[in-house]
Amino acid sequence: MRILIVEDNQKLAGYIKKALEQKSYSVDCVYNGESGEKRAIFGEYDLMILDIMLPKKDGIAVCKSLRQENINLPIIMLTARGELDDRVEGLDSGADDYLVKPFELQELLARIRALLRRPKEKVAEFLNAQDIIIDNATHTVKKAEKELKLTLKEFAVLEYLVRNKGRVINREQILDHCWDFAFDSFSNIVDVYIKQLRRKLNDKNGKYIKTIREVGYQFQE
Q1: Distance from CA of residue 62 to its chain's centroid?
Q2: 191 pLDDT more than 50
Q3: Number of Cβ atoms within 10 Å of the Cβ of 173
Q4: Nearest alpha-carbon partner for 21 in 208, 135, 180
Q5: What is the DSSP annotation of 172-198?
Q6: What is the CATH number of the domain that holds 96?
Q7: Mean pLDDT across the stretch 144-167?
Q8: Are 48 and 106 in a shared domain?
Q9: CB-based contacts of 65: which residues, under 8 Å, 6+ apart?
C-alpha cells in the first residue's frame, strides 16, 4: 500500500515516512501543496496525509481541488490548529479524518488502518488467492495455514499482486506502487523481488505468479 505525505516540515515528514515504512507501507513525501496535488492526481496512492498550512497552496484548497477532480483517496489532515471551526473546515473540504499536532504516532497509524479497511475503500483487511491469505492489519501472509516470513518490501509486492489477482501488472506499476518516486525505474529490482517471492511461495511453473512475457506479472486466481 502506498501513502503520500504532503508536509512542509521535512523533519516531521521524514519521521512519519520512516515509521510507516517500518509497517511495510511505501511512502512518498512532498513539501508544498501544488506538488502534493499533482502527485495525488497522477500517482497511484491508497491514502494521503495532508498538512493544512502549506506553501504555494494550502491543504484546504488542495483537498477541495482533489474532490472536484473526483480523486477519492482517503485523506487525513494534519494541522497545528485545533479550534472547532478549523476542524469543521478541514472535514467540509473533503477530508476523511483530522489530527491535531502534536499527535502520537500510534494514533496516526490507527487512523490510517481504520480508513484503509473501510468497506467502500479498495484496500481490504484480508486478501486471498488460492491458498494464500494476506492480513493487512497484522502484515502477515499465510500459505495453506502456514505463515511465511517475508520482508516488508516482499509483503508490499505480494499484497499488490494479490489485490490485483487475475490482472496483468507491468513492472512500472509495481515500481510506482511499492517504491517511492525517487527509485530508479530502469532497475531490475522488481524481477529480483518476484524471484524471492517465488522461492518463498515454492512457486513452480507459475502456479502463483505467472510471467507475461515483455509485459509483467499476473497473480493466478
Answers
A1: 19
A2: yes
A3: 17
A4: 180
A5: HHHHHHHS-TTS-TT--HHHHHHHHHH
A6: 3.40.50.2300
A7: 91
A8: yes
A9: 37
Backbone angles phi, psi at 113, to 5 degrees: -60, -40
**Total-model pTM:** 0.63
CATH code, domain carrying 177: 1.10.10.10
Instruction: Answer yes or no: do 142 and 102 share one domain.
Output: no
**Same domain, residue pair 51 and 143:** no
Q: How many domains does the chain have?
A: 2
Q: Can you give 7-27 as a three-state secondary structure string?
A: CCCHHHHHHHHHHHHCCCCEE
**53 or 87: which leads in pLDDT:** 53
Q: Looking up cell 515504512, which residue turns up?
A: 21
Q: For residue 122, is pLDDT > 50?
A: no
Instruction: Output the nine-digit C-alpha cell for 177.
Output: 506502487
Report helix, strand or coil for 140: strand
Spatial distance between the Cα atoms of 62 and 65, rounded to a whole number of angstroms: 5
Query: SS3 of 186, please?
Result: coil
- 121 assigned to some structural domain: no
Hey, is 209 helix, strand or coil?
strand
Q: What domain range includes position 166?
A: 126-219
